[in-house]
């Protein structure tokens, strides 16, 4: 079987198929192997907790962070921080498998390696990285697209991986050289892409997404400046409130990928505890009357 080597999050991933998104790895040794294989022989020796339903996908997690997903198009296993196995259903769409690999399996691998993995977007400014977490629909991707158009550099879309560097500082690792945006938001911003992207069942299933390449603007790892948690309220103004004390851990846990990681065996890793020491803010934007430019200006000014 031919192998294709790509870089993401500072690691080299060996794929059994081509990725239309990831950048080629140049001269790196392989850190994570991705292969296509039946899962039964591997599952017999693994103690996984009772499964739970997450966005229509059955998920099982072991004490060591090993994660198994059961979907309508295949089963996926991420284990040991270095191995992903895909047991695909016959006739499964390769694009769907690829997206699940990028946005579920690879984040789990990074969590197994002791990183803090957040459902968040990140952009680099002159004073450091701005990390914006929040529920889908809150405006994270619109903020990211506006920030990149304003001169910030893309670090991560939807999956922000944070770890300590050699100096003990928290940095956000570069993810994928693209960001995803709802088609209607892209139209309002006059952004164009090859076309809408089909998505697997889950949090984005009701949205028409487009993928916007950002290869030239992808940033290297950047020091984390501040964390923002974006939400929606019924007020008429953007409201900002500082998050303090133990409440910070609760907000971080709620944003962790895979969900529940912060409360499991990988809880209280160094990056998680150090992240809790960073300045954090809850930002509530109006449900109706707001502009991406106003939100972006506020978040970039706070760094």
Report on this model:
The termini are far apart. A hairpin with a 5-residue loop joins β14 (160-164) and β15 (170-173). The relative contact order is 0.14. α3 packs across α7. The protein is of the alpha+beta class and 303 residues long. The chain has 2 domains: 4-113, no CATH class; 118-301, 3-Layer(aba) Sandwich (Rossmann fold). The longest helix has 19 residues, at 94-112. It has helices at 40-43, 94-112, 140-149, 183-188, 247-255, 270-275, 292-301, and strands at residues 4-8, 11-15, 23-24, 32-36, 52-54, 57-61, 67-71, 74-79, 83-88, 116-118, 120-125, 128-134, 153-156, 160-164, 170-173, 178-182, 196-197, 209-213, 222-233, 239-243, 280-286. It is globular and about 55 Å long.
Instruction: Outline the low-pLDDT stretches.
Output: 194-207, 262-267
- Our Rg estimate from Cα atoms comes to 19 Å
Please report the total strand number as a whole number. Answer: 21
Q: What is the count of structural domains? A: 2
Approximate shape: globular
The strands making up the biggest β-sheet line up spatially as 3-1-2-4-9-8-7-6-5
Overall pLDDT: 83
Sheet with most strands:
9 strands, mixed
Q: What structural class should be given to the helix and strand makeup?
A: alpha+beta
The CATH topology of the largest domain comes to Rossmann fold
User: How much strand content do the residues show?
Assistant: 35-45%
CATH class of the largest domain: Alpha Beta
Distance between the termini: 47 Å
Helix content: 10-25%
């Amino acid at each position: 079987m031919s192998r294709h080597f790509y870089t993401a999050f500072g690691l080299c991933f060996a794929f059994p198929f081509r990725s239309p998104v990831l950048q080629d790895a140049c001269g790196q040794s392989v850190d994570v192997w991705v292969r296509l294989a039946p899962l039964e022989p591997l599952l017999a020796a693994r103690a996984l907790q009772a499964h739970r339903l997450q966005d229509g996908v059955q998920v099982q997690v072991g004490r060591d962070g090993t994660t198994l997903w059961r979907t309508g198009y295949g089963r996926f296993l991420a284990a040991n921080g270095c191995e992903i196995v895909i047991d695909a259903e016959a006739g499964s769409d390769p694009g769907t498998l690829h997206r699940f690999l990028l946005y579920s399996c690879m984040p789990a691998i990074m969590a197994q390696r002791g990183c803090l993995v957040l459902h968040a977007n990140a952009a680099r400014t002159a004073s450091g990285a701005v990390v914006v977490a929040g529920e889908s629909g809150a405006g994270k991707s619109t903020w990211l697209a506006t920030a990149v158009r304003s001169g910030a550099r893309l670090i991560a879309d939807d999956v922000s991986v944070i770890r300590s560097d050699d100096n003990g500082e928290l940095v956000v690792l570069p993810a994928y050289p693209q960001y995803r945006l709802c088609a209607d938001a892209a139209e309002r911003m006059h952004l164009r892409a090859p076309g809408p992207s089909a998505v697997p069942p889950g949090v984005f299933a009701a949205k028409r997404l487009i993928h916007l390449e950002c290869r030239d603007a992808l940033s290297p790892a950047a020091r984390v400046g501040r964390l923002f948690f974006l939400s929606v309220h019924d007020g008429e103004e953007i409201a900002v409130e500082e998050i303090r004390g133990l409440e910070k851990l609760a907000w971080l846990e709620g944003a962790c990928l895979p969900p529940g990681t912060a409360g499991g065996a990988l809880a209280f890793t160094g990056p998680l505890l150090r992240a809790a020491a960073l300045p954090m803010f809850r930002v509530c934007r109006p449900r109706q009357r707001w502009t991406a430019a106003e939100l972006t200006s506020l978040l970039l000014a706070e760094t």
